[in-house]
Write the structure tokens for this entry.
Amino acid sequence: MIATVENPVAARTELSVRLLEGMVRIRMVEEAIARYYGDQQMRCPVHLSIGQEAAATGVGLALRADDLAMSGHRSHAHYLAKGGRLNEMIAEIYGKETGCCQGRGGSMHLVDLAAGFVGAVPIVGSTIPIATGLAFADRQLKRDRVTIAFLGEAATEEGVFHESVNFASLHRLPIVFVCENNLYSVYSPLHVRQPAHRGLCELAAGHGIAAHAGDGNDPLAVHDLARAAVDRARSGQGPVFLELKTYRWREHCGPGFDNHIGYRTEAEFLSWRERDPIATFEYRLRQAGDFDELRHAQFQDRVETEIATAFAAAHAAPYPAGTTLLDHVYAQP
Amino acid sequence: MKPTGRELTYAEAIREGFAVALERDPRVLLMGLGVPDPKGFFGTTTKLQQQFGADRVMDMPCAENGMSGVMLGAALNGLRPVLNHQRLDFALLAMDPICTQAAKWHYMFGGQMKLPVVFRMILGRGWGQGPQHSQCLHSWFAHIPGLKVVMPTTPHDAKGLLIAAIEDDNPVVFIEHRWLHHIKGEVPAGHYTVPIGPARVARPGRDVTIAAFSYMVLEALEAAQTLAEDGIDAEVLDFRSLRPLDQGLLLASLRKTGRLVVADTGWSAAGMSAEILAVATESAFGSLKAAPRRICFPDCPTPTSPTLSAEFYPRAGHIAAAVRQTLRRPPSESDLLVPAGVELDKPNPAFTGPF
């Protein structure tokens, strides 16, 4: 935990620096994936989180190590922010035996149980009830963990979102539904999918749970919202829904950009780029005199090395042997 | 099995299986619409909530899809839940959590997580259940690697397979036929399991193999009795487990009889009867003395009116007639006669057991 009673101002500064570092690390990893994707060695779909780093980082730093999280198709940032191991993630994207799923999952199925990241799947909304079940079991077994269900705004259109929030509300489960609203489901804008006169928070509030909207590109704002939500959920006051407004920079699926295909305007994209969660937050730290050039440069060097090591290890690792094809269909007693 | 003289109905056997599982393991949890209600889920959950508490025997929102996912999460995080559906038709709302999530979870995450969850479904029949309360889609689930699928016929197997399903570390689809709930049979007290996988010889015989599922085992046994009167000795196999399927017992029987009739409780196209025929022709082709036959639903949705329902459901006589065909015997006019007093849209009063 970051907060110290002795010096709350210093603690806040340290938190801010770590938020910036968390976002930078995620972006550097995603940019490395984008850089090498064209080599055709990462043979699975990738949904990059560039532009959306603040939400994952802000929530991740509000959690205890033993808290749980699940996610959907765009899960790299959530996995890393929850403490998922980078080497296993990169190896998994490369389909290697050393990957977090031994090459059975790929980018859309990240897991790191030691970090409390219980899994991600690409069927939109499908992990929302499963995460709710994690929270239900923790309540039944009298553990004081909190579960985070990461979802995109399109998942609120799925029936299971409502079924899960209703059940979580009914039993006051220790879960926080973290909804990143990036305005698009693949190429379908929100306004063709949901009525403009009804917000996302109203959906959750309609099920009788606390709901708050915030700037998903401001990691400190996200952290404060998440911290309050997690504390509330842990103390037995019931689930919370958070809507974090943000924007995906790259194409829906893949390493490139897709503004040119005509589903969104270049002007819209540029307006969100102006609100880059990393550049704006770094600027804020500089203005406040809290940006340490040397520390940041050293941090970036370390991440650079970490990424290079992860990619080198993934390249060097063996593929799962064809003879293991039928392993793990059933759990053995 | 040594006779114990202890007789229960199938519904009582299910209830006893739940009670044993709940008693032995505090992680076991029952959930389902109406599980604690006064009617007790056809008598299969009566008063379990009073006995084990409202936090272990629970009602739920009318949300089959979401609650199936919730049960997966609960199973991943330390519980052993059973999700109960009064009709299989309602479980179809949950094909994503059952087939796309549960069935693949162990595999796609590299064998790290176990998913001990049971999806219990009941097949309706008769008294106007109609198109949407009587779909027999066991073959859908049996199609999916990663699921186990069982369909017990006797009270003994119902209790033993239920406990085995709850104790299994994989997702198990447990299917009951509504017309079996009143059947009586010997059921040992206390804890025992019937392993998931092996089929059962319900009646040994030499001349023909009748491979049957669930309620159709009873019709097959009646057919075997009729055929015995004509000097035909039929072997009836009870495929109480659909996945894994006991191919060994089927092939051993075919090598003996050389003739096969499959009696399924569902439709024929791409169904379990087709799977049995495929196993037989792929692995025992040289033993077959006649073309195999299938007794299945006609190729239409289940009707409601009693006159249409009587035409829809195949019964013992259809099985007997198919057996005669495989033996190149003349048809018997009596096979399809309906005895006086028998109403075909209600359970056959002759089928009470003990079995």
